[in-house]
Structures are given as C-alpha cells and as structure tokens.
Amino acid sequence: MPALVSKSLRDYRRSLIRWTIGIGAFFTLYLSFYPNISENQEIYGPQALAKFPGAMRDLMGGMEDFTSGIGYLSSVVYQLFGPMLFIACAMILGNRAIAQPEESGTLELTVTLPVDRRRLVFERFVALVLGLLAVTVATFLLAWALSAVADMGVAFGRILAAHTGVFLLALLCGTLSLAVGAATGHKGLAMAVVGVVAVGGYIVETMGKNVDWISWLRWVSPFHYYLDGEPLYQGFPVGNYLVLAGATVVLLLTAILAFDRRDVGV
Amino acid sequence: MTAVVETEGLTKFYGKRRGLEDLDLEIRPGEVFGYLGPNGAGKTTTIRLLLDVIRPTRGRMSVLGAEPRDPAVRSRIGYLPGELALEGNEKARDYLAFLGGVRGGVSKDRISALAERLDADLSVPMGKLSKGNKQKVGLIQAFMHEPEFLILDEPTGGLDPLVQQEFLAMVREVRAGGRTVLMSSHVLAEVEDVADRVGIVRGGRLVAVEDVTALREKAVRRMELHFETPVPREAFEDLPGVRDLRVEGASVRCTIDGRPDALIKAAARFTVVHLVSAEPDLEEIFLTYYSENEEQEGRHARAGV
Ligand SMILES: Nc1ncnc2c1ncn2[C@@H]1O[C@H](COP(=O)(O)OP(=O)(O)O)[C@@H](O)[C@H]1O
Ligand SMILES: [Mg+2]
C-alpha cells in the first residue's frame, strides 16, 4: 500500500472506530424498536400515519409503511438518519485529506516530501474510500445480522443494495469536502458546502416529488440518485449509482487539478 | 560546479502584499548560507518558493539543478519549516519512520543516534511535545536522510543553548561532508559562527550578500593599548584605519576600520604591557545595512510624493 495511504488510514483509525461504533449503535437502537412497532399496527399502521400533514410525510420519505420490515428499514434507517450519519463521517474524513492538515500547518512538511501533489490528493482520496468502506462493511454486516434477528424478512441483496447506495452517496459528499478543501484550504467552507448540498439535496429530492417548481432540482440532488431507485424494494439502481460514482470521479479530478496549481498554507 | 540554488527576479506577491521582490540569489555547493532579516522580511517566502510550497508571481529558480516542481528533487533536500506543526497521538518515532520511508528509507539506528545527540524523546505523542522538543524532532527529520541540501527556517528557535551548540556542530559536519546549508535567522549571532556567507533581506528585497570573513574585516573594532611609559600622540596620528584616537598618558584608545596592522606596527616601537581588542560587532554592521536601506527607502518615498 502506498505510504501516504497507509499513513492516512493509521491517522484515521481512531476516528473510523468511533464512527463504526456510533453508526452501529444507531442501527442497533432503531432496529431494536422494530418488534414493538410491528406489533402495534393501530399506532404505526398506514391509517395512523396518514394523519400526518402531507408535506411532513414527504419530507420523511412518504411514511407509507412502518410496520413491515422493509418499510421500517427504508423509512426509518435508510431514508434520512443513516445516510446523514455516513455523510457526516465522510465529510470529516474528506476534510482530513487537505484542509484540516493545511489549517493546522502539518501539510507543509507533507507537500515537501518527494511526492507529486496530484498523487498526494489521489492517495488521500484512496484513504477516504478505504476508510469509508471499512465503516460501511462493518455496519452492513451488523444491519444484516440485526434485521435477520428481528425477523424483518428483507433479503440480503436488498440490504446490500441500500448500503451500497449509502456508501456511494457518502463518498460523493466526502469527495466534495475533499475537493473544496483541496481548492481553497478552508475546512469551514468545505463543511458548509457539504451541509448545503446534503440537507438541501435531501429536501429538494423529497419535497420535489410533489412540489412542481422545485421538482427539476431533483436532478442535481445527490440524494435523488440514491432514494429514487428505492434500492430496498427494487435492488441495485445501477444507472443511478453510476451517476453517483461518476460525479465522485469528476470531483476528484477537480480536486487534483485545483490543488496542483495553488499555494499551500497562505 | 553548478549552483545549488539559483534565482532570477524571483518575486512573490500575496494578493497586493509584497512577500519578496526581484530576488537574484546564488547559493554555492558546500557552503553554509545565512539568510538574515527581521520578521516579515521575506525569508520564509523565499524558502517556501524554493520548496514549491508556494508558486512565484514571476521570476525563475532552480534548486539542485532542477525545477522545484519536480518531486524527485525534494528527496535530496532536508527541510525544517519555520513554524513546525506536529500534532496528534502519533509518536514522533513513527512519524519519523514514515517521513524517512517516503524519502527513500532511513535506518532506525540513524534516527536513534540523532535523537540521542539532541536529547530528544521520541516515544511521546507528538501533540504532547514541548516547543523545544518539537523543534528537535524537526531537526532530526531534516538531517536524517543526509540530504545534499538542507533548508532550515529559523532553526534555533526554542532550543536551549546546549542543544544549539550540538545543532551547530551538526551543521558544520554537513559542510565538512561537502553538502550545502541554507539557514535563516533574524539575528546574526545565530548564524555568524557557522555561515560562510550571509544574505540580508529587508522588506522583500535582498540588500546585501557578504562573506562572513569579509564582514569581519570590515568590522569596526575598539582597541586599547597600555604602555610602560607615556607615549606621544603624534606616533599614532594619521594611521590608516585608525579613528577616534585618544591618548592619555601611557594608554591609547581608538577604533579600527578593517585591519589593525598599522596600529600594531606603530605600537611596536614602544613597550606594550597590555592589549585589549573587542570582538568585532557584526550586529552593528548588520544594522548599518538596515539603516542605509531605510534612508534609501525614505528618499524614494519622498521622491514619490
Ligand atoms: N500568507 C500570507 N498572506 C499575506 N501576506 C503574507 C503571507 N505570508 C507572508 N506574508 C507577508 O510577506 C512578507 C514576508 O513574510 P515572510 O516571508 O513570512 O517573512 P519572514 O519569514 O522573513 O519573517 C510579510 O510582509 C508578510 O506579512
Ligand atoms: Mg519566517
């Protein structure tokens, strides 16, 4: 493994463990509610949920069905909170590529190593991918095991499809923070941009389904390419996922070119 | 032999702010070059340009015969940043091993030997190191791969006097091995013992480059001679290089510009019982460069109005 990749992963290790534990706790907690909910159809069933205002139901991803295993998983775990946790994790890892070490001053020695700048950005990106992948794999296995224990009746392949989507969505956001950091060196700006894209993108995608004047914006929302394919119900939305991966590559190239031509630490 | 550093019209503006302007500098193989100037003079700007941390606004430079952009050349350089940041839970030893690995491999023994020499503890997490200890780790990483060219930005900051001596010895060894050193400082005293030449920067411009020995020769030094019997004033008047002459009975006091040869020969005609010569104060010469430059700048400013 290239030295910068392994060094970055070593630096990220504690953070990765904490995120795995945190996201794992989220899955465990929410899936432990499921038996209770599935047994109380009158409180959580479709008729009960229909009482909520339409806009709010849209924002929560429809809330059509809480009581089936797949409905619970898709609307509670894989709709909003799960992806947002992964996005936050990816954003922080993305910032540790360039912006954070630049602001703290440790990047100065790194850029004077005999490593091409473009390669530096690329290796930090690889570390982001591998770190995020480790968190994804660990939490995927946990989610799958918990859903089997809770008898939710969701196929392995469908959970894999949803988890893959979360990974690609988070990787895109992490690469966005890496790219903003690589282009500007400012961590705060990178977090603001990712925050706007993630939160704004989610609102646009969910509200846009029923609000005409923002529906065209769904096409630029990263969440669209994850949520619209309903991976838990339909399996892998290959085209959509390729869009997420393609956008990530474009951001990576932007980051590499931008970092290669600017002053560091000014 | 080709120069280790060669710059031509090297200029860096931070937006509208001048960092460095029109630097023409040559650093020769095997020399220790002291780069002097007050805070904000442009020393760090120059060094960051040479290492491709920042890019010039205009001008040309080569380092070890290559473009600083070429990453390969950086494995032949050792660099101590002016503001060294070391942080986190990682132990200094592991960080040094990482840096050594990327630069092509440095043995553990070499790192340990340097740590022992500078009395640095490498088993402490870097975030917990004191300023002085961070500086030691910085020196170790700059020296450990035995680079052809060492660039040290204000290396002695935070070091105690004993470690400073050890550091100067390390610099001398580097020079003895035919390798080259560029070290910056805002005080001359820190570099005058090891430097062969000094360059003086101020306000983003190089105002002088001097041999340290020539500088010493130019230095004004005070001399005091005591004789067995009173001496006539005429014997010492109008000697070349002698100024501020005061003859009082059996003692002669004066200041000397350059060589004291004429004074010594004149004194040799009498019986000398005691002779005092103060070390030339290079700091004083250093300051005259500044004040001359200031006057010039003042004139430019007035002319500009
Ligand atoms: N990142 C920066 N942005 C704006 N001005 C800068 C920056 N870095 C240095 N300068 C300016 O450039 C000049 C030279 O600074 P520097 O090279 O750091 O001086 P030195 O290292 O000799 O103390 C100073 O006037 C300083 O204010
Ligand atoms: Mg400086």
From TrEMBL, chain A:
GO molecular function: ABC-type transporter activity
Transmembrane segments: 16-34, 70-93, 125-147, 159-181, 188-204, 241-259
Keyword match GTP-binding: no
One family name in Pfam for this protein: ABC2_membrane_2
Keyword Secreted included in the entry's annotation: no
Keyword line: Membrane, Transmembrane, Transmembrane helix
Protein name: ABC transporter permease
